[in-house]
Amino acid sequence: MHRDIQVTSRFAWKQAAKYGSIKPDIIRADWHAAPIMCGGITLYSPLKKYGAEGKHVGIVGLGRLGHFGVLFAKALGALKITVVSRWRAKEDDAKKLRADHFIAADEEGWEQGDNASSLDLIVSTVLSDKLPLDLFPAFPAVALIMKAVHITGSAIGSPKDIKEMLQLVSEKGIKPWTQEVSLKHTNKAILDFENGKPRYRFVLKNENYSG
């Protein structure tokens, strides 16, 4: 019997399971396993599928998903990584995650100059009418056709993607930013989560569980 990873839309956790397709044994820290199997695969999948290696990758939004985007883009061999956020509040975090450039979309002219047409692959981790993708200028269909531009969506990854991701995590020593919170403080953690306070993943710990 080993401990398997269970994932829902808001939580991921480890529990005992007799059968399971993925064993997270190669992840060195238990408190990293669940976030990697949730947010990690969500960002690894499109970066791998659309070839981050050797490209200038833009990650829109730096949060519980976006920080994985920077980590995996770097690990997959991106030539340059740019973080696009609304303000500069997370610029220092982007630098610590080893992003090469930061764009604040609330600043006038952010899409001009050296930033214009600079990204080869853009992965947006936000769904908001206030954040960058809705601020992009309109463009004619011919602009997509002439440059063979693709606009698509991505959810999570296949079991094969997950195995490849876990191997990369092991080889590169990828460590998500997590904050451990006692299970008895779950209600406060949910409120903090809704207010955007995690940097960048809360991990709930049950002090009474020794399995």
Secondary structure layout:
Elements: E1 2-7, E2 12-17, H1 30-49, E3 56-60, H2 66-75, E4 80-85, H3 91-96, E5 101-104, E6 121-124, H4 141-147, H5 159-172, E7 178-182, H6 186-194, E8 201-205
Parallel strand pairs: 3-4, 3-6, 4-5, 7-8
Antiparallel strand pairs: 1-2
Helix pairs in contact: 1-2, 1-5
InterPro entries: CAD-like, NAD(P)-bd_dom_sf
GO molecular function: metal ion binding; oxidoreductase activity, acting on the CH-OH group of donors, NAD or NADP as acceptor
Protein name: NAD(P)-binding protein
Structure description:
This protein is of the alpha/beta class and 211 residues long. It has a single domain (2-205), classed as 3-Layer(aba) Sandwich (Rossmann fold). 31% of the residues lie in helices and 19% in strands. It has 6 helices and 8 strands. A 4-stranded parallel β-sheet has the order 5-4-3-6. The protein is globular and about 60 Å long. The chain starts with a strand and ends in a 6-residue tail after the last strand. Keywords: Metal-binding, Oxidoreductase, Zinc. InterPro entries: CAD-like (IPR047109), NAD(P)-bd_dom_sf (IPR036291). GO terms for molecular function: metal ion binding; oxidoreductase activity, acting on the CH-OH group of donors, NAD or NADP as acceptor. It comes from Paraphaeosphaeria sporulosa. This is NAD(P)-binding protein.
